[in-house]
């Protein structure tokens, strides 16, 4: 990689991630929580009102019988605190003070009467025995909410022996902020966003064992207007996965690794399936990841698509597949007619670093629907300080600036 006087991306990101005061300045146990402790982000007008800050009426889970011993079942107390807060005509907060609280699978239902804040200062843990999750498919679920903030705390699902359900799930919700949380050891996905609109995920720390299957850091499905701003993700699967029906996604300041990188897909599992469009990933680092920037689809007929995607200012540190499109995902190689997912308008700009494999750029596209409009601009990837190579199958596009390895697009 060419020498530069500017600091490496990884250092810049660490400064960005940790410099703005502490991770979060959380409020005390008073009954009224001032909104100024939550956020001054300009894109979140629902946190403010003219003439002053919004104040939240606090419902402390300890007052409803929660035990901060990490063993007693605090699920009923959390449910009661939420129900009371949700009925409030004033903005309300469910407050989880310092300590460790054990929760079984729980649903925080909406809609609520006003703005809601779920404010954790302590640690929430899942039950130690997998059978206590039953067939729920989730651990903590926020459902049908508007103007919700999930603030702070550590969530440890203790899922090392059971990898089959999501840790924190948000479904059919709008105007949501998730800020300053730490998620550990999920049963499946750490954080799932499903059928949501206008969600900000900020200053997150996510970690699971490297060999844990299906532990996506952030999994986004059928959602619109999603922003991820600052996250450290270490996991056994995709750091971020963007699924069908998702559009208008902005990702910046993510440090991924170990893990499988940032992925669009898998797409095309179903014949009639929505696509993915308007995805922008910037100013991020992939460290020793299996993949860096990946688009993947099933090798079967479908109406799905990927279009208008930009990957920009990305540093690769020994990633095995830094840039990859794979449209031949077909387990057991049975009934694989070729992918019908149409991939077009994907730009890779200012991608620098090292590849752990000799093939640093791999575009393996569908014979029935070739990739079009792929653009490489100032892409410089090396393999053990040597020139790496690129592979193209049914892929077309253009190059500009310095591109190494040399483009394999047909002229």
- Fraction in helix: under 10%
Provide the CATH architecture of the largest domain.
3 Solenoid
| End-to-end separation | 26 Å
CATH top-level class of the largest domain = Mainly Beta
Global outline: elongated
Biggest sheet architecture: 20 strands, mixed
Helical stretch count?
2
Which structural class do the helices and strands define?
mainly beta
Looking at CATH, which topology of the largest domain would you report? Pectate Lyase C-like
Question: Approximately how much beta-strand content do the residues carry?
Answer: over 45%
Integer-rounded radius of gyration: 22 Å
Integer count of domains: 2
CATH-level-4 superfamily name of the largest domain: Single-stranded right-handed beta-helix, Pectin lyase-like
Mean pLDDT: 86
The parts where pLDDT drops under 50 for at least 5 residues are 1-33, 36-52
DSSP, total strands: 33
Family: Belongs to the glycosyl hydrolase 28 family.
Active site: 260
GO biological process, one term: cell wall organization
Keywords: Cell wall, Cell wall biogenesis/degradation, Glycosidase, Hydrolase, Secreted, Signal
In short:
The protein is mainly β. It has helices at 9-18, 75-86, and strands at 32-34, 48-49, 52-53, 55-60, 69-73, 92-96, 100-102, 106-109, 116-120, 123-125, 138-143, 146-151, 154-156, 166-171, 174-179, 182-184, 191-194, 197-207, 218-221, 224-234, 240-242, 246-256, 262-267, 276-287, 291-298, 305-319, 321-329, 342-355, 359-364, 371-383, 386-387, 389-393, 395-404. The longest helix has 12 residues, at 75-86.
């Amino acid at each position: 990689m060419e020498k530069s006087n500017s600091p490496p991306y990884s250092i810049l990101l660490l400064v960005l991630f940790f410099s703005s005061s502490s991770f979060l300045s959380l409020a005390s146990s008073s009954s009224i929580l001032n909104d100024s402790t939550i956020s001054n982000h300009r894109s979140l007008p629902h946190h403010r009102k003219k003439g002053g800050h919004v104040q939240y009426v606090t419902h402390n889970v300890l007052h409803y019988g929660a035990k901060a011993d990490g063993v007693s079942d605090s699920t009923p107390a959390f449910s009661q605190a939420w129900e009371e807060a949700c009925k409030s005509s004033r903005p309300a907060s469910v407050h989880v003070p310092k300590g460790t609280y054990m929760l079984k699978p729980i649903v925080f239902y909406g809609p609520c009467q006003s703005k809601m804040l779920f404010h954790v200062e302590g640690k929430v843990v899942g039950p130690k025995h997998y059978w206590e999750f039953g067939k729920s498919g989730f651990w903590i679920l926020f459902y049908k909410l508007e103007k919700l903030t999930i603030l702070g705390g550590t969530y440890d699902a203790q899922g090392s022996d059971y990898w089959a359900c999501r840790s924190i799930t948000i479904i059919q919700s709008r105007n949501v902020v998730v800020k300053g949380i730490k998620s550990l050891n999920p049963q499946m996905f750490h954080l799932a966003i499903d059928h949501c609109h206008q969600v900000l995920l900020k200053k997150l720390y996510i970690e699971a064992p490297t060999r844990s299957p299906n532990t996506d850091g952030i999994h986004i499905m059928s959602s619109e207007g999603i922003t991820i701003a600052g996250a450290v993700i270490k996991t056994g699967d995709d750091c971020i996965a963007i699924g069908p029906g998702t559009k208008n996604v902005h990702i910046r300041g993510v440090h991924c690794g170990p893990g499988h990188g940032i992925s669009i897909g898998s797409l095309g599992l179903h014949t009639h399936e929505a696509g993915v469009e308007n995805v922008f990933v910037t100013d991020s680092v992939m460290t020793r990841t299996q993949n860096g920037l990946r688009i993947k689809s099933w090798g079967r007929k479908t109406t799905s698509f990927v279009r208008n995607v930009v990957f920009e200012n990305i540093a690769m540190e020994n990633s095995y597949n830094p840039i990859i499109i794979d449209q031949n995902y077909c387990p057991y190689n049975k009934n694989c007619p070729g992918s019908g997912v149409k991939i077009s308008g994907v730009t890779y700009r200012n991608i620098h670093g090292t590849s752990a494999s000799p093939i640093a750029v791999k575009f393996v596209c569908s014979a029935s629907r070739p990739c079009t409009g792929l653009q490489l601009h100032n892409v410089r990837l090396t393999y053990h300080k040597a020139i790496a190579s690129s592979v193209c199958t049914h892929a077309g596009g253009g190059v500009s600036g310095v591109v190494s390895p040399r483009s394999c697009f047909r002229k």
